[in-house]
Amino acid sequence: MTILLVKWIFVILHVITAAAWFGLGLRPRAEAAQALADDAAGTVRLMNIFVVLTLVFSLCAFFAGGGFAAYSPVYHTSILLIVVLVGLQLFLIRPAWNRLQSSARSEDSGALESARKRIAMSTGIGHLCWLVMLVLMFWNKLAAAF
Q1: pLDDT digits (tens, 9 = 90+) for 64-80
Q2: CB 74 within 8 A of CB 139
Q3: What are the residue boundaries of the structural domains of the chain, listed by start?
Q4: 23 near 81, Cβ under 8 Å?
Q5: pTM passes above 0.90
Q6: What is the gyration radius of the CA atoms in the chain, in angstroms?
């Protein structure tokens, strides 16, 4: 009974942190580059925290629920995609935001636009991974419905 409760607590925390990461990635386009760059530091820091917590909570729920033997391969794929999402966040999204900040300080409009496009592309790839993970986590239930 307590293992089941612990698992569901981790699942709820996993869902909350995943939703927070997704929501932070949906940024409005700001006209003032410096204002966007100043705000970006806090947003990226939160995105880093939430994506890592999403991975940690998903692993905790996964192993509290029985681990690899208890879950089908679609869950294994979801875990792999969460690791990919963490990599996207730390090695594509975060550096692009850092480049945007430095471009805004130097007022280089070409570099600023390039950084903005890289952020949009990286975040879009991250959101696609997030969506695929969501579908995979409910795949068995979706397949049973049809």
Answers
A1: 999 889 988 888 999 99
A2: yes
A3: 2-145
A4: no
A5: no
A6: 18
